[in-house]
Write a structure and sequence with these properties.
There is one protein chain. This protein has 28 residues and is an all-alpha fold. The protein has one domain. It is built from 1 helix and no strands. The mean pLDDT is 74.
Amino acid sequence: RRGTRREFFEKVIDMQATIGGGGKMNAV
């Protein structure tokens, strides 16, 4: 499995959205 920058950014955006957006993915 390759770790791409896009994957990393997706994770970061997901975390940010969870912190300040209602949490679409609380349990990862």
